[in-house]
Design goal:
Strand content: 35-45%
Radius of gyration: 21 Å
Strand order of the largest sheet: 3-4-5-6-7-8-9-10-11-12-13-14-15-16
Helix content: 10-25%
Length: 269
């Protein structure tokens, strides 16, 4: 089953992603250097997948193979992928309790996180850019532990958020001796109003045999999820319409399967 194959290959990346930065209340691009920029709000900004959950669960028991396969993929892979923000939220939540300093156009928060035998020194920087209307962020970690590896000013994350809250991007880096230059995960998102949202994860780790781009799009009642793999073997597209209730699933080297509002397989037109 392609669902289980993708789930297995993505398991290494799920714990390292899910960070979505939003700046919903920031609408003014004028920079006031007397005040630090608003800290990114890390939300579980996951796709609207209620179509495959909750009230539809009873119906899905008798659903056709198309809807059942799509529901399994979304519930077991996509939902965890987009909802793992809580893994790294503590890094940023602590910043609000720290007084930032300002030097040469850059705001900086520093604070300490202690857990069990581990002590982590966090350095978060923000550089507002009035010309681009964006704020550049970077988070560095230094650790001291009696067990395991110790990091010194390791760049864990970097990214930008638009000051009007319309878009953003994040990159997450794995630790390597001498520092990592290429991100293992990148996340890009954009929003235009309440019902138009696009988010893309790109996963590239040495623990997977191929790279993946996972894109969720929402345009009114029309929703789609697209997985593009480097080798093409695990490519798929899932589409559903929350108004009509119909949808389809396309999988690599297989015919499209469509379903109606009752989740029954129907002929694709």
């Amino acid at each position: 089953m392609i669902c289980s194959k993708i789930l297995k290959k993505l398991s290494i990346g799920i714990i390292a992603i899910g960070l979505v930065a939003c700046s919903d209340s920031a609408t003014d691009t004028d920079i006031d250097t007397s005040e630090p920029p608003q800290l990114p709000e890390f939300k579980q900004y996951q796709p609207d997948t209620d179509y495959f959950n909750n009230s539809n669960k009873q119906k899905s028991v008798q659903a056709g193979t198309g809807y059942s396969s799509a529901a399994q993929l979304v519930q077991n892979t996509v939902d965890p992928l987009f909802s793992s923000a809580q893994v790294y939220m503590p890094f940023f939540n602590q910043a609000q309790y720290s007084d930032p300093t300002y030097n040469d156009g850059i705001w900086e928060w520093t604070y300490t996180i202690e857990q069990s035998e581990l002590t982590a020194e966090i350095r978060l920087t923000a550089e507002p850019n009035e010309g681009s209307g964006e704020t550049e962020w970077a988070l560095y970690v230094s650790t001291s532990s009696s067990e395991g590896a110790n990091f010194e000013d390791y760049r864990f994350m970097s990214g930008t958020t638009a000051m009007d809250g319309s878009q953003g991007n994040w990159s997450i880096f794995s630790y390597e001796d001498g520092g990592s230059t290429d991100p293992i995960v990148t996340f890009n998102w954009s929003r235009d109003g309440e019902d138009n949202y696009t988010a893309t994860y790109s996963i590239n780790t040495s623990s997977t045999s191929t790279t993946y781009d996972i894109t969720y799009s929402e345009d009114g009642p029309e929703h789609s999820l697209e997985v593009v793999s480097e080798d093409g073997e695990h490519d798929l597209v899932i589409f559903w319409n929350t108004d009509t209730g119909a949808g389809y699933i396309d999988r690599a080297s297989e015919e499209r399967i469509c379903w109606d509002a009752e989740f029954n397989n129907v002929s694709c037109q």
